[in-house]
Give the backbone structure.
Amino acid sequence: MRTKLWGVLAALALVAAPAVGSAKVLLWEDFTSGRATGQLGARWTLVGEQPGAVTGSVVELDGNAVMRLEGTGTAIVGDPTWGDYTVDVDVNVFNSDYWAWAAGVFFRATGAGTIGTSDAFDFQGRPWGMQVEQWNNGGAWQYLGEEGAHRMVPGQWHHLTVTVTGPRIQAWIDGQPSFDVIDPSGTHLQGAVGMRLWGAGAYFDNLQVSDAQGLPPGYLAIEDFSSGGLDPRWTVHDVDGYGALVAEVIQFEGRNVLSMDDSGMVVMGDPAWTDYTAETEFYVWNDWYSAWMAGLQVRSTSPLGSWSNSAAYDATGRPDAAQLQRNGTNYEWWQWLINAPVPTSSRTWHTVKVVCQGATFRLFMDGELVGVTTDPVPYLSGQVGFVTYGGGAYFTNLVVRENDFAAPVTTAAASGPAGEAGWLKGPATVQLDAVDAGLAGVRELRWSVAGGAETVVAGSSATLALEADGVHDLAFRAVDRDLNAEAAQALTVKVDAAAPVPATPVVSGTPGTNGWYRSPATITLTGTDATSGVRRLHWAVNGGVPSFIYLRSVDVPAGEGTTTVTWTVFDLAGNSAAGTPVTVKVDAVAPVAKVSTSPTSIKANGKLQPVKVTASATDAGSGVASVVVRVTNAAGALVATAAPGATVQLKGTRGERYTFTAVATDLAGNTGSKAVVVPVK
C-alpha cells in the first residue's frame, strides 16, 4: 500500500506548503467510493479538448483506489464560487509517450472546461519542468511561469500544492516551492478545481481543497463533512480489533454526515491539544443494543481502540443517561465521572458538548448543563473525535475551540415618543442586544421589570414593550452557550403618555353684582398629574405674550376692567393640557353722581311749592345701574324719594331747609352720591 506523502514532504520544504489540517476542508476525494463500480462520482465532469479526447475511471493501484485519467482534457469538481483556497493532490504519470505531455492540477476554473472556453489556471508538470498557465475564456492561454528546477518523473508519485489568495498564486511540488506569481488580469478570483492532462495518462489520488484563510481565531477544528470524505486528518479505530466498525461519509437528510456503525472511535487533531471545548451533533440510527452509546471522544491519545487501554474521555448519550466516561489505560477498567439521568432518544438529532479545563469537565446535552466533575488523575491532552458502542450513529458539525469563560455583554436602548426630563410620552420599547467576546455565542437574554419574574428569550437580541405609564426599573443580562452569565445591569424607563389635568381656576376678591368684583382679584391656576407630576404653567392675559412659571400653581392678578386668562398645564414628560379660559371683571371705583334743583330755594309762605330735581351719574367701569334722589329735611328725616327729572312738593316753612341727595349705583354694586341744599327763605 502506498505511503501518504503529505506530512513527509512538507517537512522537507525550505518554504513549506500550507500544513494539512490547518483549515476547513472544502472537498476531499480518495476515490474509495468508486472502487466497487470503477466509476467517478456524479460530482465529477470530464471535458475533452475534442469529443472522446479524455477518459476517466477509478482503478485499484497498490492497494489504493485512484483516478485513472488519460488523453487531453480536464476532470472538474467542486464549487465554481470558491475563492481563496489551497488544493493538494497526488499525481503519478503512467503515459508519457507524447514528447510534450502535461499533467497537473486545474484550479479557479469557470466555463466549459477547454482552452478558449474557460477562465482557469493550471499547475502542471512537463518533460522539461513545471508550468503555471492561465486560460482566458474567448482568448488564448499564456504562461505565467516556467521553471526547470523541479520535474515530475513518470512512474513516481508527486504531491502538488497550490494556494490562491486574491490574485496571488503559490505552487509547490513535493513540498518544494515552485512558483509565486500574480494573475496579471486580477479578475480570475474564483472557480472549481480538477485534474489536467495534455497527451498523457496519469493517476490521481488524495485530492483535498481547503479554505486558504484557515480557521477563525480561537478555533482548532471545524468539520461538517461537506468535503465528501474522511480526509487524512482522521483515523479510524475499531474497538478491541473486532473489525466490525464501518465509518464512511454519506448523505442524510440532505447533508453530509459521518456514519459509524458498531463500536469504535474516529478521531482527528493534535495530541498536544490541552484545554478546549468540543461540540457535535449526533443521530443514533442503529439502536440494536439496549445500552448503546454515541457521542464525543476528547483528550484521546494512542493507543486507541480499547475502552481499557485508551487514554480518553467519552462524552455520550445513552438510552437512560448522559455520561462522561473515563477510559482506562494499561487495561484498567473504565469509570463514569458523570452519569446524569438524562435519557437520549434514538432517531433524533442531539447536541453534545464537553468543556475540558485542566482536571475539570463540564458536560452539556442538547444545550443544557448535565454535570460537572473533576478527575483526580486526569488525562490533560489529546485529540477529538466520535465514539459509538453497540449501535450506529451519524455525526456532523464538529467544532473544537478554545474555552470561553467570558460572560457576554448586553446593551439596552429605550425608544418611544420623546418627552422631557428623561421621560417618554408614549409606550416604550427597549432593544436588548448582547455580544459574546468569547466563542460560545449568546444563548439567551433574561430580564425582569420592577423585581418581578424573569423573562427568558433565546438568542442575542430581544425587544420588549413597556406600555403602562410609570417608572419601570428594568434588570437585564445575557447568558452564553457555555452558561457564562453576565452580571445584571439596570435601566430605568419612565413613561407618561397621559396629559395633566387642569383644575378649575379659583378667583379671590370682593364679589360684587352681575358677575363683577368690587376689588382687585387674584386668579389661582393649578393642575395635577398622576405620573410624572406638573412641571410648569403657561398663561397669557388678554391674548398677550405668554408667561410661564416652573411651579404647580400660580396667582394671576386681575385689576380694573375685564381680564381674560388662557392657560396650559405641562407635566414633567412634556405632555400638556389647556385649562378652561377664565374671565374676571373688576370695578372697584364708585360712580360719580350729579344733582341740581329748580328753583334752588323756596319761599317761607307756609305753602306747598314744586321743586324739580335733575340728577345723573357716570361710571367708567361696569357702568351706571341706577340713580335715585333722596330728599331729607333739616332734621335728616326722609321727606321724599324721587327719580331724576321728577317734581316734588315741599312746604315753605320758615327756617327749614331741604337736602337733595343723588345716589348712583354701578353694575358692580359700588355707590356714589352728590347732594345740594334747597333753603326756605
Summary: The chain has five domains: 6-211, 219-401, 409-495, 501-586, 592-679. The radius of gyration is 52 Å. Residues 1-21 have pLDDT under 50 and may be disordered.
